[in-house]
Design a protein that fits this description.
This protein has about 160 residues and is α+β, with helices and mostly antiparallel strands. Helices cover about 35% and strands about 20% of the residues. About 10% of the residues are buried.
Length: about 160
């Protein structure tokens, strides 16, 4: 199977909307640990490692704060589960409508969105869905820093 065909099948599988089974659970990614291992937190507050299966590697990326659907691995000591599906915003909306979404994650998501909105000072609802890169400084911060540094160099 070519890379393009494999990627097409993986993306099609990710877009599938289905209710999680009883053994599956929704967790939030805290940190990437390398070697396709990710540290996650479940709704109860437990933190553990999960593995990303081969079909997702180099096709779909996850970052800190993303939500995934996992299935436990019974023989796992350090790695407790494996990622079954990477959840998008459409999945989150659909799971909330189906009452499958953990309420603990709603509180976390709402508070983090409020802090991002306060930092960015954006009021448009269209811009709320845009990705905010937290690794970059805001342009307002850069302007303020450059003004203060130029003022300090002028005064000396």
């Amino acid at each position: 199977m070519s890379k393009a065909t494999k990627r097409k099948h993986v993306v099609k599988e990710v877009e599938d909307l289905s209710i999680p089974t009883e053994s599956q659970s929704i967790v939030r990614i805290i940190e990437s640990r390398g070697n396709n291992l990710h540290e996650v937190i479940d709704p109860a507050g437990d933190q553990y490692l999960v593995s990303m299966p081969t079909k997702f590697r180099r096709n779909i990326w996850v970052k800190r704060g993303d939500f995934v659907l996992i299935e436990p691995i019974p023989e796992g000591d350090k790695v407790k589960a494996e990622i079954v599906k990477i959840l998008t915003r459409e999945h989150q909306k659909w799971y909330r409508a189906q009452n499958c979404w953990p309420k603990e994650f709603d509180e976390i998501t709402n508070s983090s969105q409020r802090t991002i909105k306060n930092d960015a000072k954006e009021e448009d609802s269209e811009e709320d869905d845009l990705f905010v890169n937290t690794n970059r400084l805001n342009s307002n911060r850069i302007d303020n820093v450059s003004k203060t540094s130029s003022d300090e160099s002028d005064s000396s």
